[in-house]
Structure formats: C-alpha cells, structure tokens
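Illustration 12: Protein kinase domain-containing protein.
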Amino acid sequence: DDEEGLRQEVTNKIRELRIWARLSSDEYVQYRNAWLEGDETSRHRFIQYWHENRQQSRHFDKTHVDFQRRLYSSAKQFAILHIQMDLCLSSLTDVLTQMRLYFDRQIKQLLPPLGYYMASELLIEILMTIQDLHSRDPPIIHRDIKPDNLLVHSEPHRGKFVKLADFGLSVEHKSKSQSHSLYVGTERYMAPEVKVGGTKNAQKCRYTPSVDVYSIGVLIQDLFNVDFNNWKNQELDDKYKNIMELTLSALSGQSWQRPTCAQLLTIILI
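Figure caption equivalent — predicted structure in token form:
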C-alpha cells in the first residue's frame, strides 16, 4: 500500500505540474522551475519526511518500517522533486486574521465600511481568477479553494494582490459527461455533490466547475466575517444584504442553480 501510495503521489504531482504550466498569468502563483535531486542528503531528508508523515497520518507498524528500509536501499532509483515558485509571505487566512484584529472584530462579527470595501476588492480579484480558470479550454476545476490557498502580496503586482495556489487537486474538465473523484478538497468548502456517499473511498461521479462556486460561497463568509446561520436576526444594511444573497446563490444545494463566477462578478460590481 505504501509503495502504491508513493506512485500515486508522484502521478498526482506530475498532473499538478502539467496544469500549473498552463497558468502563466498574474492571477496564479507562478511555477518557475522543477528539478530532481537524488544525492545522499536528499535521500535522508525524504526518509525522515516519510517516517514523520506516516506516524502522523496512520499507525506506523513493522510493515511500514520494512518498506522504509526497502525505499532507503533503492538509492539509484530515488530522487526528490523540487519545485520553485513565486514567494508570497501571506495567505488570505493571515490577512483575514489581521483585518479582524485591526477592526477589533470577533469571528462572525460584521466588518465596518472600510473592512467591507477591503473584502469586496479581494473578492473581485478572487472571482476574476476563478472565472479565468473556468474559461480555459478545457476548463480547470481547482477543487480546493479556501483562504490557505489564496496567497496575498504585500504590494500589488500589476494591480493585483491575490494569487491562487496549490493545484494538487485540480483537474481538467474535458466534457460534461466526465466523472471526477469524490470527497476531495477541504470538507468545510466542499460542495454537496463532491461529498456524495460521505466517505473517502475512491468513487467518482459527474460534477462541474460549479463545485468551485460553492467553495466561493463559503469563502465569502470568511471574507466578510458574516454569520450565515444567524444573518436573518441581524440588522443588515443594503450592501450586506446583497452579500448574503450572493452567498445563498453560491451555496445552492443544486449545482445547476449556482451562478457562474462571471455572474457573481456582475452582481458585486453593480
């Protein structure tokens, strides 16, 4: 199982690099270079990583130790894949934490007007990025949109602060009849159709780029620090009412009822 898991990780990484290489615009963290290193130091580093990863993720028994020894002995076939990319020091998670501190807001407490404006500008950039992803030929479904995967520059680059990162779960959507794996991504941001079956078995079903729109619906709540479950009991001005309606449409349980990113942009830019 460990050997098969390692092969799958390599396959997934190659797929990620192929998708990443198609995304050469400022909206994305740029893939700069990749290389393999197979020296003794790299081998020791990988063995240590594998050992720690297996201890954290599952029971590490004698079978895994034996595999580790076999892996270590395969020096001639071993190498670490290194990937060079843009340096971004902050994620959207960091930025949202700093915004709450600056405006003295608790989680799920509405932001003041300046905070609303900042969140709106960030949302526009995010929507434009995902719209670009979905308009590719074939469209690309990211499948793991969340604050940790949206990196933020301290200074704008060509007018943009936000860059989308981590394409490890991304897939090309080549036809409407194409099926994709279930239960991939981060559960809180996962669309209902991706959760079908409620297990992490390697099952597949048909779904579309609208699963990313659902993730954006959850992300909007993070951006604007709103309490989706309690918003009807709050006194909201018109701008926050529009945001809640936007969120509701993106979070529709029926994928065909969700708006596209282009439609969401049209609404928020009004």
